[in-house]
Amino acid sequence: MNSAVSYQPKKKPLLPRMKKYAGFYFMFIPVLAFLIIFHYLPMFGIYFSFTKYNIIKAPVWVGLKNFERLFAMPNFWQAFSNTIELSVIKLVLSTGMSVILSLLLNEMNNIYGKKLAQTIIYLPHFMSWVVTASVFQLILSPTTQGLVNSILMQLGIVDKGIYFLGNSATWEGAYYVINIWHDTGWGTIIFMATLTGIDPGIYEAASIDGAGRWKKMWYITMPSLANTIITVLILNLAKIMNLFESVFVLQNDAVMDVSQVLQTYVYYQTFNSGGIPDYGYTTAIGLFRSLVGMTLMLICNYASKKVRGRGIV
């Protein structure tokens, strides 16, 4: 009897293989050095979150006292809730607007008009948040020089200018609008890439069956986008604790109750504390934020396995 024998090629030793691909390893060295210096070595700074440390004196071990102080501060919990609220609502609104614009762009037949619209929508993404904040400070100015207030006054909707970025009741709405304007273009690129991968034959078959534009969008386009939408939401949900720049450049003393987030809280505790900052306390805040972020990442990874059949890490 002839028995089938599976053939498995013998692997070469490690050193000859490394010598063969030495160029690739050499190119990887700067990346490896960057990861070690800026991602792994700072992890040893976790030690300072259990100490009282103000640079002038050597760190003094205090155990969990920094965390006890942290959890007893009402401003901290307000910053924590603001971080969750602003991040989640901004994520949902930006993703939703990106999907809507992608669907509208996908329905455009004029290729030149579509490219022009894509370019206009995507341009704000290249603007820094400092420039974006300056532009909208002028647009939303409470004086007659502000574009929005000028229009509202001419229409007779308001008698005097509204300070959108200096009023707690209007700051959040203005913040969401600015973020949609700034970030939506990036999202449309992701969704447009998915839409271009849909087989045109499916649309042709639907047309033969008598399906109109709305039915094609609802029964073909949206199901094709569903997996991408869920993936984008899951990936971005894991980063909601990193909110800083977009809030920092738009906040002021009048709206701290709604605009203070964890990252800005750490900034003010470090640089505007009115004395020598306690780096042990601010490191404890950073450690707590990292633990929450890690928890969200694990939840997102679990959700990704349930939805897509594979994790994100």
List the helices and strands and how they pair.
Elements: H1 14-20, H2 22-40, E1 51-52, E2 60-61, H3 65-72, H4 74-106, H5 111-122, H6 129-139, H7 147-154, H8 168-196, H9 200-208, H10 213-237, H11 245-248, H12 256-259, H13 262-271, H14 279-308
Antiparallel strand pairs: 1-2
Structure description:
The chain has helices at 14-20, 22-40, 65-72, 74-106, 111-122, 129-139, 147-154, 168-196, 200-208, 213-237, 245-248, 256-259, 262-271, 279-308, and strands spanning 51-52, 60-61. With 313 residues, it is mainly α. The chain has a single domain (74-308), classed as MetI-like (MetI-like fold). It has a two-stranded antiparallel ribbon with strand order 1-2. The longest helix has 33 residues, at 74-106. The protein is flat. The relative contact order is 0.12. The mean pLDDT is 84.
